[in-house]
Specification:
The chain folds into two domains: about 240 residues, no CATH class; about 120 residues, 3-Layer(aba) Sandwich (D-Maltodextrin-Binding Protein, domain 2). About 70% of the residues lie in helices and about 5% in strands. Strands 4-1-5-6 form a four-stranded mixed sheet, with helices on both faces. Helix 8 runs antiparallel to helix 11. The chain is elongated, with a radius of gyration of 25 Å. It is found in: Membrane. InterPro entries: ABC-2_transporter, ABC2_TM. Keywords: Membrane, Transmembrane, Transmembrane helix. It is a multi-pass membrane protein.
Length: about 375
């Protein structure tokens, strides 16, 4: 009987073309736009040597930064050539397009100024983001006493290692990073199927809910069958989207495929359970209002996860408000994929899996609590 409920539920869900579009077709179309926008960012072959201004009030900090910047090479030739300038000279040369941009280096901060958007400017921005992020990580390691300063200077700020990790697709890919956030957002959209389950399980929300409530079957069995059916359908959708991203859009996800499939599975259960919980908590809202709430939450999570060009904000949150990053489902999913792609150690990945699993369990228990206490005067 349970298997029959699952099969019937899958048939019902397949008839909902609107949700099929938003959870399958929309991510694929958005992925096409991402591919057109970011496909050239990892190709340094199209870059000629470009001059970059350096405005400095901290010579020691500047020397280290310039050494790393000069290590960016294309076929043995430097991609960027630094020019030491005053701020007034840098502003004038930037206005005349004599430099791609200029870095202003002070004891407190490093900032970048550009006058246009192009591949050289984009790479300069990404380089600065990665440099600041890695430097903060190393300062934290030094403060903890887990490494020695000479180890960092030898292993990290060598001529090629840092830049290789920042720009070669085998170690760091700008395109892959943005697709990781897109994948996370697409998985987050699984909340829509969870909302549909909640809507169809409550008698005060739909006619389907009335029929399910008068069935001579345990409500927990019905809810579990609905969750399993939506999981199977959504997971299959997600695998198809992943195949399009990998084989059509040529996105590099690394080679840890079993772990990637695990991310999809755990994250799908978490987002489906989240949608069911939202549907039960806001039972008095109509379905469209709950969809709008879920989309708004998903977009906010995507923004703080760095999807809209907000990598600097994402890094600031990770450093200063790490708990906010931990409770962001989109950030947890995209970080898990990033860690599989970038890090050798799987410890951070498993920590994210524990958080995602915890959220899934909490969402399911709360949904069960809300559904269990629902009573109706009449049907």
């Amino acid at each position: 009987m349970f298997l029959r409920l699952v099969i019937y539920r899958i048939k019902v869900l397949l008839q909902n073309r609107t949700l099929l579009f938003w959870t399958f077709a929309f991510p694929v179309v958005l992925g096409l736009l991402f591919n057109l926008a970011f496909s050239g960012l990892d190709d340094l072959g199209s870059l000629e040597t470009t001059e970059v201004g350096i405005v400095s009030t901290d010579e020691q900090k500047t020397d280290r930064f310039v050494e790393v910047l000069a290590s960016i090479e294309n076929d043995g030739e430097p991609v960027y050539r630094e020019k030491r300038l005053t701020k007034q000279e840098a502003i004038a040369q930037l206005a005349d397009d004599k430099i791609a941009g200029y870095y202003e280096i002070t004891p407190e901060d490093i900032s970048l100024s550009v006058s246009q958007n192009g591949i050289p400017q984009t790479v300069l921005k990404e380089f600065l983001n990665q440099y600041i992020q890695r430097t903060a990580e190393f300062e934290a390691l030094l403060a903890s006493g887990s490494v020695q300063p000479q180890d960092l200077s030898e292993d990290t700020f060598s001529d090629t290692e840092f830049v290789t990790e920042s720009h070669e697709s085998s170690n760091y890919s700008i395109k892959s990073f943005y697709f990781f956030t897109l994948v996370a957002m697409a998985i987050m959209y699984g909340f829509m199927w969870g909302l549909r389950n909640a809507n169809d399980q409550q008698a005060n929300q739909s006619s389907n809910g009335i029929r399910l409530c008068i069935m001579p079957k345990n409500k927990l069995m019905v809810a579990t069958a609905n969750l399993l059916a939506s999981f199977l359908l959504f997971y299959l959708q997600s695998m198809l989207i992943l195949a399009v991203f990998r084989f059509v859009y040529q996105v590099d996800f690394g080679d840890r495929w079993l772990h990637i499939f695990l991310v999809y599975a755990v994250a799908s259960v978490a987002t489906l359970s989240f949608g069911t919980l939202v549907g039960n908590v806001f039972a008095k809202w109509n379905f469209q209002q709950k969809i709008s709430l879920g989309v708004g939450v998903s977009m906010a999570m995507s923004f703080f996860a760095g999807m809209m060009g907000t990598q600097t904000l994402k890094h600031w949150i990770n450093v200063n408000l790490p708990l906010l990053g931990r409770i962001n489902l989109v950030n947890l999913i995209s970080d898990s994929l990033y860690q599989l792609f970038y890090y050798q150690s799987l410890k951070p990945f498993y920590q994210n899996m524990v958080w995602l699993t915890g959220f899934a369990v909490v969402f399911m228990l709360l949904s069960y609590y809300y559904e269990r206490k629902v009573q109706y005067d009449h049907l």
